[in-house]
Amino acid sequence: MRAVAVTAIGGPEVLRLVDRPDPVARPGQVLVRVLAASVNPADLASRAGLVVGEPIEPPFVLGWDFAGEVSGCGDGVTDLRPGQRVAGMIPWYVVRGVYGAYAEQVAVGRDAVVPIPDDLDPVAAATVPLNALTARQALDLMALDPGSTLLVNGVSGGVGGFAAQLANRAGHRVLAVAGRDDEAWVAGLGVTEVLPRAIDLTTVGPVPAALDAVPVGAPVAAVVADGGVLVTTRPTPPVDPARGVRQHVVLIRLVQPMLADLLADTAAGRLRTRVAATLPLAEAARAHRLVAAGGLRGKVVLVP
């Protein structure tokens, strides 16, 4: 099969299309023919050597979330069948590039995938696992009182966009920081107030909770009221302990029932996602350049 490998630590030019042995579904695994694989900022960081824990020696394969068709089932997997469409997430920081979603096929544990609703396109489905699960679990960490106000920074992005929608549906008042010239789409997510990206955050708040999905660190932390809660997608400088702010970094977990609900909500239009571009595996380097340049309106998705 073909896959995209990081051949050296560096820029997008280190991504190369390579031939690898076809994976085989072992007991408890499913073999999936990948139809779509989302490109995430975490992929760009890993390609550049910015990974948690010990460095990863090239070559390695990138890619967290994917959608595709089951092409084989290992022993013990009886509830899925070949031809069934599924979406899932590879715990990339665990497998550390031994395999990834930037490939024509992946063999993953049965607990890594859920069926895709019939009326959900695989490209859209591939944008859901990492970003929507992160958003949902970030809100769970906050443990907000009913009707709370929270600031979400980065609502034009995947995690922030899903988080704003989920918080709004839960009855919270959402102050949403939009990307440049993206206020109209953010307003369409049902948020309470859209804040432009150029806003001076010192003029906002205090609010009891904030999700810094970009993250930018201190400017968002300053908005949180003393005794409030701040959740970020990457480590940021600690808040002064005297302020009593609960500070969390959301560490993504694949929870099958949660992912199934998020996919069902996306299929039904209760959650909105958007795709900026689809590109073949051979253009993975271009995909990384597009994401790095910023200003996209949606995700870049590789379609093997």
UniProtKB/TrEMBL annotation:
InterPro entries: ADH-like_N, ER, GroES-like_sf, NAD(P)-bd_dom_sf. Residues 10-302 form the Enoyl reductase (ER) domain. Keywords: NADP, Oxidoreductase. One of its GO terms (cellular component) is cytosol. One of its GO terms (molecular function) is NADPH binding. SMART domains: PKS_ER. It comes from Micromonospora krabiensis. This is NADPH:quinone reductase.
